[in-house]
Amino acid sequence: MKIGLLGGTFDPIHLGHLLAAEDIMKLCRLDKIIFIPSARPPHKNEKYLTSAKDRYKMVALALKAFPDFEISDYELKKAGKSFSIDTVRYFKAKYSEKNKIYFIIGADIVEQLSGWKSWKKLIKEVNILIMSRPGFKVTKKAKKIGTPVEIRCVDVSSSGIREMIRKGLPPAFMVPETVEKYIYEKQLYRN
Hints:
Helices cover 38% and strands 16% of the residues. The chain has helices spanning 15-27, 52-63, 74-77, 84-94, 119-125, 140-145, 158-166, 177-186, and strands spanning 2-8, 32-37, 69-71, 100-106, 127-131, 147-149. Strands 3-2-1-4-5-6 form a 6-stranded parallel beta sheet. By secondary structure, it is an alpha/beta fold. The protein has a single domain (2-153), classed as Rossmann fold, CATH 3.40.50.620. It has 8 helices and 6 strands; from the N terminus they run βαβαβααβαβαβαα.
């Protein structure tokens, strides 16, 4: 089996995440993609993150319509910061050597990799798929790190959605309907 790992804060998960995953799955002939919400990302201020429980629930709701997408609570249950190298090693051990694991990142992340824990080991231990992102070129350096994948891109971001909601605008057509409903029920992103 070919398994893709897609981590992130997903605060909130949006249609851009789902479209990217769908494209990566088809273009790279993956059998499934596992979405991994991070509990304590080392490069983000936890103070401003929506609770891990709410972010996990929104991802779970969004994935119900996609049988080839799964969600993992590995990073949420893990103590301490969420480091990609640990996550990759966990899934490699879980799925044994018979399966091929792919770690999915955006082209915008490539330049930040050198600041990640054990990043050189990470790029040696796992196949990296680099999704195209608007405004970011896949450089020669990036091509040495992983395989570029040209996906359909939509101009939507989690931070943009949070800002819209703060302004009183609905996130319709940017998040799945189930996620929009959850955001309103829990009154997320109001302040």
